[in-house]
């Protein structure tokens, strides 16, 4: 899925680690990536600096009011049953949503304020 992105990837996930950053390294160079997470720990900040020095940069913002996880690829929105950091460890669902990515993202982010 990451490789299919043409313009943007946006991930909303409370639990981010270097595995998620490496997953996003699979995107094309022209694809912007943004992550919204509950908290940017010192470890995540260090991992992000190392990642951004080596790969196409990722922007990380905080978003505390979202319990669920979402992945937006271009104009498509997906609901994710578990954190992407655990991809491949256990089975979990991935559902494409009918709402368009920008529409759903705006609803989620507007609740933060």
Question: What does the secondary structure layout of this molecule look like, with pairings?
Answer:
Elements (H helix, E strand, L loop, with lengths): L7 E5 L5 H7 L7 E6 L4 H13 L3 E5 L6 E5 L2 E5 L13 E3 L4 H10 L3
Parallel strand pairs: 1-2, 2-3
Antiparallel strand pairs: 1-4, 4-5, 5-6
Descriptive overview:
The protein is α/β, with parallel strands linked by helices and 113 residues long. The chain has a single domain, classed as Endonuclease, Chain A (2-Layer Sandwich). The chain is 27% helix and 26% strand. The protein is built from three helices and six strands. Strand 4 and strand 5 (76-80) form a beta hairpin. The mean pLDDT is 85.
Q: Total number of helical segments?
A: 3
CATH class: Alpha Beta
The protein's oligomeric status is single chain
Q: Briefly note the structural class of the backbone.
A: alpha/beta
Number of domains: 1
β-strand number: 6
- CATH fold description: Endonuclease, Chain A
